[in-house]
Amino acid sequence: QVQLVESGGGLVQAGGSLRLSCAASGRSFSICDMGWYRQAPGKEREFVARISCGSVVTYYADSVKGRFTISRDNAKNTVYLQMNSLKPEDTAIYYCNLRAGNYWGQGTQVTVSS
User: Fold this and answer.
1) 9 or 30, higher pLDDT
2) CA distances from 100 to 35, 66, 82, 84, 96 (A)
3) Mean pLDDT over each residue of the chain, to the nearest integer
């Protein structure tokens, strides 16, 4: 079993920054091929960013490209999402996902005020 625990959410003004963390624990595994998704009130969960295995390749939704950066620390089994230039439309619950086994964290709330 794998546990994913997100942290780092909060309330920030538009233009501000937050860094989300997703700490993974459980059975032995690689934290590669992990992603961040978000779900705003009344909307479906949507893809935000993903980091690949092996050679580090990252993918981003067009809406966050240039503002968000996904990274990982293999020694800490942690994946990060650095979010800069936040906008009110970034307000959502942010979830991390491990593709192998399709594990999800409990989510962390991000609220951006205008």
Assistant:
1) 9
2) 11, 27, 23, 28, 12
3) 93
